[in-house]
Input
Amino acid sequence: MTSAPRRPSICVAQGAAIICSMARTLIPWSGSDSVTSDMEVTRFLFDMCRVGGAVGFAGVSEVAPGAPAYNRDMEAPIEPPLRAMGNDDKTRVRLPRMAEVVADSIRSQILTGEMQVVPQLDVLVKQYEVGPPAAREALRILETEGLITVRRGKVGGADVHMPTNERVAYTLSLVLQSSSTALSDVGAALRQLEPLCASMCADRSDRATTIVPELKRLVKEQEEAIGDRPRTMKLTDEFHALLVRQCGNETLVQVVGALEAIWASHAQVVFDAEGVELAPPAVWKAALSEHEKIVQAIAAGDSARVADIARRHLEATHAFMSTVGEVGMVTAALVQRRL
Output
């Protein structure tokens, strides 16, 4: 003979009794001697949960930073209830998903050079004690960021790609293209930032043994390459990239270097277009002369002069490119070709 199911009201009553019994075990520890009835026990337990902490021996709750303190001798918390208990969810802290935690760990190891190859999926599952879906999603996050390329098939794992200035340039070009940015806008930024880098090169105390010899070598090769447009463009790009790379500020190196890569990608398309004639010898020699003046100003430590020369040089070269062909808008595909 089966017993009749218990009524919900009986179960609720029994559950409440159990909760009250559990709460009574906390009352002596809290230092409270005024809680006697079941109703008072329930209120005592509710107040503890309300402030998010346990009542301490001194009568004030030990709660997380920012939570209101509870005093057993008061009718309410010392401060208003926690914001999280209200209806305002706009500033509620979002906890990271497990996949994001795994991706953060792998990303950190990649950027510090500790990890050159990402292990296979089953190794990641054991190492991080997560399920295969979380490990796969972590790999997808890193692949989207361009840090890895997941190997398909039985081999598994993933190849690591350290961030480079070219990849930064490509990502920036995607952003600029999405906002319909004209290439002339990139040129205007370069005319402000590259002269700054050149002036910082002139301020370097070790310029005579570091940047000046390299600039002189490039200028000499440029002189020998007059009339050879592909080689001259390559040497010109290297000259300007060296001014940025040796400025001594890593943030400028990455930002200005990315802008230069975007500009150079588009300039190559303009000058390589069908029907574009070689510039007259006077233009080649003028560009070479300006490069020589930049090197001389850096060697002399004249930061103001080199900034002025570099600015006028960029204005002239950018203006000349606009006469050769249509500059147009930033196109990320042109930058990707140089990766």
About this structure: Residues 250-272 form the longest helix (23 residues).
